[in-house]
């Protein structure tokens, strides 16, 4: 579904990514893990068109999307939930969700998607008439994910959903991601919470200093001595 080949990207004269390659198959749950500043978010930004790669290529659904405008990439079926969330805080929860379906024209299908989001995140149904700016941190994360789902994406990319959340809310968000995967949603997740991520992902890429240092199945990486010592604090 997604192929990233020899990607290089950065900001201005600062290169962040060096020869990054990865792939996501339909129905997979793939994670990008690593420490802060490793290049994980930059990878998602380059895939989604927020920044233009300096070299390499990105293919989505067998179509070259390298250098394509972000709104066109979104229309191809790729939804990107940013770390900043970018919610419309002065609008209600339900209106934020409906904006996620802006490009869809079938009202019945949009309403069905809305009910699916409410089924996945019951708290959003309770808060549907509430302003998005008044939600808690965890509720805002759920709203951002729900809005991304409203476009019926083929691939959902989620950046740091556990950032700044209390432990209990972190578990709620991870349970929601697991539920999405069980429903057949293809996911590419960026996270620093290595242990919890490897518990729910099928496979992962470990990024260090702008490159892919390790890759493999989540089960295999959990047994990797270097990863356990470096990221899980185990010797």
Question: Can you characterise this structure?
Answer:
Helix content is 38%, strand content 26%. The chain is built from 10 helices and 10 strands. Strand 1 and strand 2 form a beta hairpin. It has helices spanning 40-48, 70-75, 93-99, 107-120, 122-126, 137-149, 167-182, 194-200, 218-222, 225-231; strands at residues 2-11, 14-24, 29-33, 55-60, 63-64, 78-81, 155-159, 186-191, 203-208, 211-217. It is α/β, with parallel strands linked by helices and 235 residues long. It has 2 domains: 1-77 and 156-176 and 186-235, Rossmann fold; 81-152, no CATH class. The protein is globular.
Write the layout of secondary structure elements.
Blueprint: E1 2-11, E2 14-24, E3 29-33, H1 40-48, E4 55-60, E5 63-64, H2 70-75, E6 78-81, H3 93-99, H4 107-120, H5 122-126, H6 137-149, E7 155-159, H7 167-182, E8 186-191, H8 194-200, E9 203-208, E10 211-217, H9 218-222, H10 225-231
Parallel strand pairs: 3-8, 3-9, 6-7, 7-8
Antiparallel strand pairs: 1-2, 1-4, 4-5, 9-10
Helix pairs in contact: 3-6
Give the averaged pLDDT, no decimals: 91
Helix count, DSSP H or I runs of 4 or more residues: 10
How many strands, what sense, and barrel or not for the largest sheet? 6 strands, mixed
**Over the alpha carbons, how many angstroms does the gyration radius reach?**
17 Å
Task: Classify the beta-strand content into a percent band.
Answer: 25-35%
Q: What is the name of the CATH architecture of the largest domain?
A: 3-Layer(aba) Sandwich
Q: How are the strands ordered across the major sheet?
A: 6-7-8-3-9-10
Class by alpha and beta content: alpha/beta
CATH class categorisation of the largest domain: Alpha Beta
Which blocks of ≥5 consecutive residues have pLDDT under 50? none
- Say which CATH homologous superfamily of the largest domain is assigned: P-loop containing nucleotide triphosphate hydrolases
Tell me the span between the first and last alpha carbons. Answer: 37 Å
Give the tally of structural domains: 2
Please give the number of β-strands: 10
Helix content range of the residues, please? 25-40%
